[in-house]
Amino acid sequence: MTANEPDDESTATKLADRRGQETNVYQPAEDSGLLADAAEEFARGRTLEVGTGSGWVAEQVGPHVPSVVAADVNPHACRQARERGIETVRTNLLDAFGDGSFDTVLFNPPYLPTDPENEWDDWMEQALSGGESGRELIAPFLDDLGRVLAPGGQALLLVSSLAGYEEVEELVRDAGFVPEEVRQESYPFETLSILRLTRFSICGKPSSGKIE
Known about the structure:
Layout: H1 8-21, H2 30-42, E1 46-50, H3 56-61, E2 67-72, H4 75-83, E3 87-90, E4 102-107, H5 123-128, H6 138-148, E5 149-160, H7 165-174, E6 177-186, E7 191-199, E8 201-202, E9 205-206
Parallel strand pairs: 1-2, 1-4, 2-3, 4-5
Antiparallel strand pairs: 5-7, 6-7, 8-9
């Protein structure tokens, strides 16, 4: 098994363990801490955290930026984030936000590869499962990211080796962004990385990343 291949037993264990701890809202874990650490250094301007869960990451980042907004499709997560004093919007990914709204976007996507036949179809499943590939929500997020970023904007994306690091990098480049790894932590069954995404540019101007 290579570093990028998911271990079915470890993935199943993670799902079961997280359900045992919390049934509705994803709570802070190692991936949350890694994203918060990177965001405290790199986030700037008006900042959005997509898939905020409990709102913990947004709360950590708040003191370092002029303003922070959290978003989640899960109503229980929105309630917990608001209880932390975070401005929170219930929406799917970036749907509710206007063009050029944010200077920084943070996203810790659901990334555990999950067999559709074994899905529980509950809120914790949505918080953890990245579909069969682990990348089910990463692609649509990247497709819409450029729209909500202000000129010169950036994103910080958490990537797990379980979802395929190289495959995610390819999606990032196809969406017109340059990935830069700014954090990495290794664990027995996976490696977590934070990619800082900035737009391709030619002669100082934003580009689609494709040269014709």
